[in-house]
Amino acid sequence: MRRRTLLAAPALLLFPRAEAQTALPVVASFSILADIAKQVGRDRVAVSAVAGADVDSHGFQPRPSDVEPIARAAVLLRNGLGFDPWFDRLVQASGSRATVITASEGVTPLMTRGHHHHDHGDHGHHHGEGRRRHHSVEPALRPDPHAWQDVRNAMLYAENAARGLAAADPAGADAYRAALAAYRGRLQALEEEIRRGIATVPEARRVVVTAHQAFGYFGAAYGVRFLAPQGVSEHSEPSAAEVARLIRFIRAERVTAVFIENVRNPALLQRIAQESGARIGGRLYSDALSRPDGPAPTYEAMMRHNLSLLVPAMRGGA
Ligand code: ZN
């Protein structure tokens, strides 16, 4: 930073102030959102994610060192829909007065109820509290936070991010608008690619088993039924009866698409696959990107990677 300032100093005499400014510091709660912000911010922004590659954001435990980048950021991006309440607490702890953008603003949320005995987490309380609170009552309907799995929602995320960047950096407004337009075009192509890919699978074969219910929006948008032993946000083990029911379903329906996820321990799914005779079709990226050298370093790469696994697995031997 210091060296850069020294090198830039002579330029201050020749160019308007904006030309010498360093990148706008932006912090997103998780990796997928950070990538979307990068796509619309390009070289005007320096984006980091609190929950990085392959990290599960549900019930994420921030470190004290996560506060400082947030305190320095000019724009803060949260998913909302109950996904990242820990990020809101970090922002509060940081004393930041930066622009806070809710990426999911404008999304029509899918509502879920989940299983009563391991329903928790969407309001940031712990397992024990959740169990006590919901033990004898029907759990309230809550929004499914995984809105980015529908590409049209990712477009909303990008629009919201661009709006936040332009508010904090008005000199870059035109650049953000142009980058957003280009990104929207690529997302439109991605959306069509997903629809074409799913269309090659006979409707009756469009059934997938994953580790947790992260693909509700994907399923609703593209016509695929997703089943999972774990619900929308919790980590607790499903009951033996629930696992047995899922195994019976996989056998009866001859489900050929069974996947582990990058943010979840694969043990449960491996057991389910073994007992049902299904084959694990690979690792889906649900709630976090891969590292840069992995198969899903950007949102677009993540969606294409998942599609490339889902389609052949659903088609099975057919
Ligand atoms: Zn999730």
Features:
two-stranded antiparallel sheet; globular; 318 residues; single chain; binds zinc ion; disordered N terminus
Helix content: 40-55%
- Evaluate the radius of gyration: 21 Å
Name the quaternary structure: single chain
Number of helical regions: 12
Written as H for each helix and E for each strand, in order along the chain, the element string is HHEHEHEHEEHEHHEHEHEHEH
Distance between the termini: 57 Å
Unreliable sequence segments: 1-17, 115-136
Which ligands, by name, code or SMILES, are bound? Answer: zinc ion
Strand content: 5-15%
- Give the overall average pLDDT: 88
| Strand element count | 10
Biggest sheet architecture: 4 strands, parallel
The helix/strand class is alpha/beta
Short description:
It contains twelve helices and ten strands.
Structure overview:
Helix 3 crosses helix 7. The strands form four sheets. Strands 2-1-3-4 form a four-stranded parallel beta sheet, with helices on both faces. The chain has a two-stranded antiparallel ribbon with strand order 5-6. The protein is built from twelve helices and ten strands. The N terminus is likely disordered. It is of the alpha/beta class and 318 residues long. The site of zinc ion has 6 residues, from loops.
What is the fold's blueprint, element by element?
Elements: H1 2-14, H2 17-20, E1 24-30, H3 31-41, E2 45-51, H4 67-72, E3 75-78, H5 85-94, E4 99-102, E5 111-112, H6 127-134, E6 142-143, H7 151-168, H8 173-199, E7 207-209, H9 216-222, E8 225-227, H10 240-252, E9 258-261, H11 267-276, E10 280-284, H12 299-315
Parallel strand pairs: 1-2, 1-3, 3-4, 7-8, 9-10
Antiparallel strand pairs: 5-6
Helix pairs in contact: 3-7, 7-8, 8-12, 10-11
